[in-house]
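Why do we care about 3D structure at all? Because function follows from shape, and shape follows, mostly, from sequence. That is the central idea of this module. The next example makes it concrete: a single protein chain, its amino acid sequence, and then its structure expressed as tokens.
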Amino acid sequence: MELANQLKPSMSIGDITYHVLKAQGKPLHYRDIVKKVLEIKPLPGLDDGRQVARVLTELNLDNRFIHLGGGDWNLREKISLRAIKQYEDEWEN
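And the structure:
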């Protein structure tokens, strides 16, 4: 089944993002993630900046995702434990 047919507006932002990143198979820049999420799940009543903030907040709160730096995000399950530790150490310093 095509990815677009699997994604529904009733899904959470996190679930949509998970399926998009899983299908992509590589990290995506947050702008690309936001664009794809909003294509599936519009956030009416929010200006563009608040829409971006809403999606990024959901990514930050959802442990399935990891920020790789430079605006790129990936699925935590796709990253080795060693790499996760390295990213976390870099963010702490």
